[in-house]
Amino acid sequence: MDNRLANNIKVGLLLLATLLSGCSSNNSLPVATLHPSDTADINSYRYLIGPSDVLSIFVWRNPEVSGTFVVRPDGMITTSLVEDISVSGKTPTELARSIEEILSTYLRDPIVTVTVDTFVGPFSQQIRVIGEAAQPRAINYIQHMTLLDVMIQVGGLTEFADGNDAVLIRIEDGQQKEYQVLINELLKDGEISANVDMLPGDIIIIPEAWF
């Protein structure tokens, strides 16, 4: 009886080990994809609506379907006539034309105006600063924003930062590219030539210095 119990325990442990090894082999996650912005240069920037934006939608002569709407995390809004309208990734003008087309099913020749009251924008338009920034975070892109503007918003560098080995990651023509940025020279030495234009979706990684 004791030998049978011992054999059953061994078999159980073997099955458990097999299951665990199978789980670990299938426990890899896909690498996150950096989604490119549609802004290829600083002069082609257009603000795109994103989740958590607050929109004012005015339908001329139809106040019952006008109002203020918060964009849901799935990029949709709900109106009194239409439950789900996809808005994320559109400019306010594009969204206005899209809503006019949707409302034409219910209203005659609707005229729609869309304004953005609170700006958040999609992740693909935000600039993210990680590593040894004083306040690492995501920043809403503003047209003609530069590296200096970004560093002011994150409070500069920590005392442990190696700013001259910082890396800017950018998607260009569908390819991820890396550029060295000289943040120490810009902030500590006042070297304005180290200031560079930022684009929506840029990521700045600031490493720790080796002492």
Automatic annotation (TrEMBL):
Tell me how this protein sits in the membrane: Multi-pass membrane protein
Domain of life assignment: Bacteria
Start and end residues of each Polysaccharide export protein N-terminal domain: 44-116
Q: What InterPro entries would the database entry show?
A: PEP-CTERM_polysacc_export (IPR017477), Poly_export (IPR049712), Poly_export_N (IPR003715), SLBB_dom (IPR054765)
Compartment annotation: Cell outer membrane
Q: Where is the SLBB domain?
A: 125-206
Signal sequence interval, chain numbering:
1-28
Q: Does the keyword Nucleotide-binding apply?
A: no
Q: Which UniProt keywords are listed? A: Cell outer membrane, Ion transport, Lipoprotein, Membrane, Palmitate, Polysaccharide transport, Porin, Signal, Sugar transport, Transmembrane, Transmembrane beta strand, Transport
Question: So what family is this one in?
Answer: Belongs to the BexD/CtrA/VexA family.
Instruction: Please name the PANTHER family in this protein's record.
Output: POLYSACCHARIDE EXPORT PROTEIN GFCE-RELATED
- Name of protein: Sugar ABC transporter substrate-binding protein
